[in-house]
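Good day; I would like, with your permission, to put a structural problem before you. A protein sequence and the structure tokens that stand for its backbone fold form the material at issue. Thank you for your consideration; the sequence and its tokens are set out here:
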Amino acid sequence: HITPEKFYVEACDDGADDVLAIDRVSTEVTLTVKKDVPPSAVTRPIFGILGTVRLVAGTYLIVITKKKKVGEIFSHAIWKATDFDILSYKKTMLHLTDIQLQDNKVFLSMLNHVLSVDGFYFSTTYDLTHTLQRLANTSPEFQEMSLLER
């Protein structure tokens, strides 16, 4: 969900009530609940957040807008991110000079080029950041941790 003040990222899991709120001015990230999302917010589906990047115009949020299932590991789906959106935290570019606008446009073009190259994979249920060998040698406590906690 997008408002002029915040981005709200809502999980699609059944029973999930928490919503990630990202302040577009302070860049502060907090957890809130669904009822705090204003009804006027523009809503669109995403499949994940790749991250943030700071360019000349300010901070941008990179979100995954399309995905393709490429396989499974131990019955865990592995997805390839195939399309992205780059969302500006700023509401306007009026604070930039013509040279800064041009530089920002070039950097956005470079970023779009990098995102168009194959190689962005993710799983919502399996840890792709560690090798199978390393996962086999971790403690039971580590295995019980959520992917976010790891």
